[in-house]
Design brief:
Elements (H helix, E strand, L loop, with lengths): L1 H4 L5 H33 L3 H27 L6 H24 L4 H19 L8 E6 L26 H11 L2 E5 L2 H11 L3 E6 L1 H11 L4 E5 L14 H12 L6
Parallel strand pairs: 1-2, 1-3, 3-4
The structure holds iron/sulfur cluster (SF4).
Iron/sulfur cluster binds next to helix 6.
Length: about 260
């Protein structure tokens, strides 16, 4: 279930597409400059060179970000400031990777899973310990048993922990570790919860698409994403491996022996 039962996404898929995207972006920027140059020159003789310098700098920063992601995935330590550049780069390269993936017919979900793996890797390698009261577990509403009558989206505490779905297990775990937990029906409410609780780190459970959107929405807030399992199709009685979520939670809390 969750991270464990799904085919483990390969980080190199996203890294490969991001690197390719970087080359394509550099070529596109150069082509754009060639088209713009005569017009810019008419405004001022120096303008094409000024614009070229700005564009080269932007491409170099992006290339540096992609290089940092590769180094981090290879297990090399990168500075905290450099990590921000890497996070910025993966978020910026994601739409380009999806576009290139579409051209070579790579399934979008595979790229999304790979992106989540890379993003998780950066957060995990950060090795920052967050205080429990500044950590939030966000779970999707579809994880609740569809016939359960308890209103857990208002308060997760309303769950009676009957064991018929994974909400009870997640709630028990969040209480044991002293972290916040919220069950949300969608991205809008998730953003509201984050705004009101102001966590320093989020452990989000969701499908590929929601995780990718969530990670990008709350950037630079660190998010570890755990994929849910959908044995009944999307958005209905989804499941999660609670032990896998706890393992990730322990990493955020700095409890590495427990994780
Ligand atoms: S564990 Fe909680 S949410 Fe799930 S069915 Fe039981 S009471 Fe409802």
């Amino acid at each position: 279930m969750g991270e464990l039962a799904l085919v483990r996404p390969r980080k190199r898929l996203f890294l490969g597409l991001a690197s390719l995207g970087l080359i394509v972006s550099a070529a596109a920027v150069y082509a754009l400059w060639l088209v713009m140059s005569p017009g810019l020159e008419r405004i001022h003789a120096w303008l094409p060179y000024v614009v070229a310098a700005v564009l080269v700098l932007a491409v170099l920063v992006l290339a540096f970000g992609v290089l940092l992601i590769v180094l981090a995935v290879l297990g090399l330590p990168i500075l905290s400031t450099a990590r921000r550049v890497a996070w910025w780069a993966i978020n910026l390269m994601f739409p380009i990777a999806i576009m290139l993936g579409r051209l070579v017919r790579i399934d979008r979900e595979r790229i999304e899973r790979s992106f989540i793996e890379v993003s998780n890797h950066l957060v995990r390698n950060h090795r920052h310990e967050f205080p429990p009261d500044r950590v939030l577990i966000l779970a999707p509403h579809c994880i609740q048993l569809d016939v359960c009558r308890h209103k857990i989206t208002k308060r997760a505490d309303n769950c009676k922990q009957c064991g018929k779905c994974n909400v009870g297990g997640l709630l028990e775990m969040s209480k044991r570790h002293g972290v916040h937990m919220a069950v949300v029906p969608g991205g809008t409410l998730a953003r509201q919860v984050i705004k009101s609780l102001r966590p320093k780190a989020v452990l989000a459970v969701a499908c590929e698409r929601d995780l990718v959107t969530g990670i990008q929405d709350v950037f630079p807030l660190p998010v570890i994403g755990v994929l849910n399992d959908r044995p009944n199709g999307p958005c209905c009685n989804t499941r999660i491996d609670v032990a896998s979520v706890e393992k990730s939670l322990c990493l955020l809390l700095g409890k590495r022996d427990e994780g």
